[in-house]
Amino acid sequence: MRFVPREMDEDDELVKDTLTCLKRIECTEETERYLPGEMRDELYDAWGRARVDIYRQWQEQTDPLNVQPDIRKLFREVGQHLREHWPSDMTEDELRETVSSVEAPWGRRYERELREVYEDESFGPVETSRRIVDKVDELGLQPFEPPDPLPPIQKDEVKLVCWMVVAPDEKDGAGENGPQLMSQVTLDT
């Protein structure tokens, strides 16, 4: 889904987030359906911009490096700590699984939980590793499976499924400072 503003500079980005696109649309079943004549030609330009943007985003996601998640610094540090201070009662496979479970795109809640254990200086490094392993088990963290990259496509495979033009209600006095006529293009690739 893309939201293409009518007044758009070359450097402006299209709105890609579905919820943000949907927030810009306000209408009811009773809303009059009308397409201003001057908008008809602009629709093709809007579709062209949206199509190029969708194709570019898809192509980026065909590269395995571009679909790798960002891993917070603490999780990388905890993984390195586990490698350097490997508890003797852990097998190599257990260590590898724990490190894979930690070095993943977890949120702030898990970061806070692990930080408490990792930064507690009242224990030695190996005991800290044991406590990290216990915390990973307690939280139920599992090794992260990165998403597969998308298969490459050709530009002509990006198809228009639905489009909608949203214009301000003329009775609302939308002038120079009011809402601008906008188009929304809903697309499927």
Report the β-strand fraction as a percent range: 5-15%
- Helix percentage range: 40-55%
The helix/strand order is: EHHHHHHEE
Largest sheet: 3 strands, antiparallel
Q: Based on DSSP secondary structure assignment, what is the total number of beta strands?
A: 3
Radius of gyration: 25 Å
Number of domains: 2
- By DSSP (H or I, 4+ residues per run), the number of helices equals 6
Shape: elongated
The CA-CA distance between the termini, in Å, is 10 Å
Plain-language structure description:
It is a single chain. This protein is mainly α and 189 residues long. It has two domains: 2-65 and 152-188, no CATH class; 69-139, no CATH class. 41% of the residues lie in helices and 10% in strands. The protein contains six helices and three strands. It is elongated, with a radius of gyration of 25 Å.
How would you briefly describe this protein structure?
This protein is mostly helical and 189 residues long. The protein has 6 helices and 3 strands, in the order βααααααββ.
Looking at this protein, list some descriptive labels:
single chain; 189 residues; mainly alpha; 3-stranded antiparallel sheet; 3 strands; 41% helix; elongated; disordered C terminus
Question: How does the SSE layout of this entry go?
Answer:
Layout: E1 2-5, H1 18-23, H2 39-60, H3 73-84, H4 92-102, H5 108-118, H6 125-139, E2 159-166, E3 182-188
Antiparallel strand pairs: 1-3, 2-3
Helix pairs in contact: 3-4, 5-6
